[in-house]
From TrEMBL:
Keywords: Signal. GO terms for molecular function: catalytic activity. Residues 1-21 form the signal peptide. GO terms for biological process: nucleoside metabolic process; transmembrane transport. This is Purine nucleoside permease. Pfam families: NUP. PANTHER family: PURINE NUCLEOSIDE PERMEASE C285.05-RELATED.
Amino acid sequence: MPPIRTAATALATLAALPAAAQTAETPIEVRAFVASMFEIGELTGDRAGEFQYWYENHFDGAEPIAVAGAKTPVHCNEDGVCGSVLGMGKVASSASMMAILLDPRFDFSNAYFLLTGVAGTPPSRGTIGMVSWASHLIDYDLGHRWAEDEVPAGEPLFMPRSGYEDIRRYELNPALVEAAMAASADVELADSQEARDYRLRYPDEVAQGAPFIGTGTHMTGDTFFHGPGLSEEAQYMAELYEAADYVITEMEAAAIAQVIDRLHGTDRVLSLRGAVNFDQGHPDETTLEHLDPAPGETAGGFDETLVNIERVGSALLSEITGNWDAWKAGVPAAE
């Protein structure tokens, strides 16, 4: 016959358990979450990918928190800023984001989301080293496309598909974008002689200019599109969806925004991208040559752009975490 468990013995057993086993762990209040898409090697000490400067300046020494279903662990600091590498492309990045959002160890109820990484830009509207806060996110892939020789010359090669109206275009919170632009307005941007020399291959005044901080539409597509024709198509899509001019081509933001929207809405979502390449070749270069450049023909400024992304984003993070009482309830009214 098994021994009878009395209330006294049950209490004695409970008292012997570790404190963590007796009470639920208090979730981490996330004030801001930095999402990067890839890292080249280690998180510090080697050639930097998209997350390394974030890690070194915000999370160095933080205990990694492994999340089931996420590509890499989450790192958090004492200011309530957390970050992770989500993976490249729509599927990898959105899967990681959903796994992290659903982990009960994190409280995202008041969090701001900063989706960051490198990108391409049309030479008519951007340049190497520039940094852009997205006003709109557009999914490049949700629609119908056909070959150029299958329609009359000059007609569009893309048509939206019905049923995707709520997820093919996101207008990000204008007040938040305006606050981000204001917070980062005085950030000094890095540049390099290699990047300056490369820009001169393009005749566009903007392309030849120095890096700057701007805003516009970010086009999300798993297709790494290149060439003037597809660049024009991206601008056509931006106009078709009544968004701002297309300025950035990237692979993740619209998909991640959809994931966040399902659980928290998009009022606190930002996309921050830095341009490391043009979306087309210069006048003396074919699209294929631009996609597969010969040695010495690549654009410079990759590391400088990574520096710029972190500097610009950190200016806003400092504003948010340094004035959390004002930001917790939403974007403070502009002065």
